[in-house]
Amino acid sequence: MVKQTPFNVEIFSECFEASATDKTHTDSLPVLLVSGADAQCTQWVPALIEPLQALGHQVVRYDHRDSGLSTKVPADVFYTLDDLADDALTVMKTYGIQRAHIIGRSMGGMVGQLLALNHPDCVATLTLVCSTPGLGDERLPMAADWLLELMTERLFAGPPLSDVDRAAWIVEQDEWFAGPRFVERTELRIRKALDEVARSWYPESGHGAAVGASPSRLDRLDEITAPTLVVHGTVDPVFSVEHALALAEGISGAELWLVDELGHELPDSLLPELVERLRRHFSQPPN
């Protein structure tokens, strides 16, 4: 479904209805999946969605503005994480969802924090995967030096033009981000990357600028009342473990799951354990 927002962009979204295989969870609230920067909603894979449907959840995923099948915003149009949070609310309203379990990955976790802070009645629980309370906050470490150097080289080189080179760009970055525990074959990464490029991968997005221009939430974390699960890898080169600790310590009652040797990623091999943790997490009473 494509829905126009008050910011004159159209947001592509998909809704997967509950299959209610587990009859004890037929009244479960919907789940909203919020992607990371430059990531299309298709990175939320069936291996996660289908078990959530089986638990009785309606599951919604969507492309951020400047991503996938949603509107690509002109370079001179400025927006922030607050605008991306408003887009998420628009998606919820499209499906008549007043309250949902929010699962946000990386930048999506930042959007999730803003939803929990500014629209608490809409957030039943919050799950933050490889995220941070504040990119650029001097109280938190920057990305690994080697990664900053590589990303800077990319910035000055500009994105590749051919489909093959664009897929190679995606694969290379995915391998930079990955930890040593969950190894994925390069051939599989290439196949996924080609699918992303064909669907409308857009590396020229303003997501990075939106994150950089948005204030840190570190000093506001104690305002979050939704039960929160923080999932983070011990070798994440983008947001080191200190970012996860800051989230878990700042949000009252938050549960921290540190995954040994996981990088800045959410591999398929981790999803069965994640689903089991989500099942327990979703059943928590409000703080």
Indicate the radius of gyration in whole angstroms.
Answer: 18 Å
> What name goes with the CATH superfamily?
Alpha/Beta hydrolase fold, catalytic domain
Cross-sheet strand order for the largest sheet:
1-2-4-3-5-6-7-8
Query: Which fold does the CATH topology refer to?
Result: Rossmann fold
Q: What characteristic shape results from the CA principal axes?
A: globular
What does the main sheet amount to? 8 strands, mixed
What count of helical segments does DSSP give? 9
Number of strands: 8
Task: Please tell me the total number of domains.
Answer: 1
Order of helices and strands: EEEHEHEHEHHHHEHEH
On the 0-100 scale, what is the average pLDDT? Answer: 93
> In CATH terms, what is the architecture?
3-Layer(aba) Sandwich
Description:
This protein has 287 residues and is an alpha/beta fold. The chain has a single domain, classed as 3-Layer(aba) Sandwich (Rossmann fold), CATH 3.40.50. It is 37% helix and 15% strand. Helix 1 runs parallel beside helix 9 and helix 5 crosses helix 6. 42% of the residues are buried.
Spell out the key features of this protein.
single chain, 287 residues, alpha/beta, Rossmann fold, 8-stranded mixed β-sheet, 9 helices, 8 strands, 37% helix
